[in-house]
Amino acid sequence: KAGVTQTPRYLIKTRGQQVTLSCSPISGHRSVSWYQQTPGQGLQFLFEYFSETQRNKGNFPGRFSGRQFSNSRSEMNVSTLELGDSALYLCASSPEQTGVGQAFFGQGTRLTVV
Amino acid sequence: GQQVMQIPQYQHVQEGEDFTTYCNSSTTLSNIQWYKQRPGGHPVFLIQLVKSGEVKKQKRLTFQFGEAKKNSSLHITATQTTDVGTYFCAGGQGGKLIFGQGTELSVKP
User: Fold this and answer.
1) Rounded to whole angstroms, how far apart are CA atoms A78 and B100?
2) What is the pLDDT of residues A51-98, one digit of tens each?
3) Which among B92, B73, B94, B76 is positioned nearest to B84, based on CA atoms?
4) Scanning A6, A44, B36, B76, which has the fewest C-beta atoms within 10 Å of its C-beta?
5) Model pLDDT, residue A96
6) Is the Cβ pair A45, B42 closer than 8 Å?
7) At residue B1, does pLDDT exceed 70?
8) Residue B17 has pLDDT above 80, yes or no
9) Per CB distance under 8 Å, which residues of A are interface residues toward B?
């Protein structure tokens, strides 16, 4: 069974630009959640999607948004990038609701904003 | 909002010594999960605890969930160099996982 796939693995963007990250969950998993990981802040919850609906959201500004498609693949978008958005973005998939059972993480997308 | 605090932030041990990391939540948790992240890697699930006072063992690792379901600990007996990495606790609560800051473990051979 293929694991969680995130693309791209690395990305360099300029301040003010926008970026879209992609996450393909494990086949059959309906929940996809996104996290931002930085050395100083650890793993911060961004949002969770389940059956194409955003069910939970963390404390991030509206520049961070996402969506989930009917095949459970998810995208995360960050607009008007700031230097502080540089981080490792991880997505995780779960068979059911995030937080109920094991979450399977992808390798992450390393975003650098210059 | 809900917070999960984890201590210590760093722990350096000699191979063969024991290691413990502690996790405390500001609210009662549905469950507590533990993950390990190797340097340059992604978090990998270790275990989930659900019941009050639950204790689970995986070889040299012992996990505990407090009676009030607000705290948890991970204890590693006789550390090995393969134990190196960052250990995270994560509280499961209504559709999200709230992670602790993690404890970075280094093991000197």
Assistant:
1) 24
2) 899 988 999 999 999 999 999 999 999 999 999 999 999 999 998 877
3) B76
4) A44
5) 81
6) no
7) no
8) yes
9) 33, 35, 42-45, 48, 50, 55-56, 58-59, 90, 92, 97-108
Contacts of A35 in chain B (CB under 8 A): 99
Distance from CA of B94 to the nearest CA of A (A): 7
Kindly tell me if the per-residue pLDDT of B108 is higher than 90: yes
Nearest to A109 by CA among A76, A81, A72: A76
Residue B93 pLDDT class (50, 70, 90 cuts): confident
Structure tokens at B83: 């134990």
